[in-house]
What we know:
Structural class: mainly alpha
Radius of gyration: 19 Å
Strand content: under 5%
Amino acid sequence: MIALAEGLxxxxxxxxxxxxxxxxxxxxxAGYLVVGEPFVGHALHRRFEGRLRVDPxxxxxxxxxxxxxxxxxxxxxxxxxxxxxxxGPGQVGLAWPRQWPGLVTMLVCLALLVLVVxxxxxxxxxxxxxxxxxxxxxxxxxxxxxxxxxxxxxxxxRLERRLFAVVGVTAGVCEEWLYRGFFLxxxxxxAPGSSATVLVLVAAAGFGLAHAYQGLAGVLATGVLxxxxxxxxxxxxxxxxxxxxxxxxxxxxxxxxxxxxxxxAR
Length: 266
């Protein structure tokens, strides 16, 4: 990841300055993304797991809650940015790409897409399916087997798939705006002169921690993804390509039939 960010310093967003009241609000939101979101996400997922076996509408309810939370936080960050003086759209990635990613970045993105295709084929083949794990008394809130947090979120019915499609697009738009555009702009303001390497690593750590409910493997996987998307953003100066990549990666789950998903997560 360090090599990936080499040579990007000339493409860094400019630091935010003279924010006044908006500066404090921006720092609070950025702090929540790194510190608060892991706890909130874990609590929401555990609550969802507890409802999953007894409520047929648990996934639909969870999807709607995610939509409200992500769009609400994204709009709040947008309002804070609009309240900041002399902070142009290009400083938070709201611009057309200035250039294509470099060769190394493109090769890493290609490798990532290959891994996504292979993992999708694995899920479609049903290799992740297994016998149900019976819940013991008092374990209703932890009914899902370890390591299957993501599988539990995947849609089964037609209505769930429609909602999940909206969730996937929302994640691509809102999370890139929050964790790449807005968050990295705040980091650049708090630590002027930060190198591209530092920003990529910070973005990777923040995005990985936000997915703490997926366990250590999920934190590492999403951390790598967050770092790659941050490198693409920093090199192109735009959130457009990260949004498209993020959306495609999330929507791939719609290719997985419900019959191929673990029975314990249904």
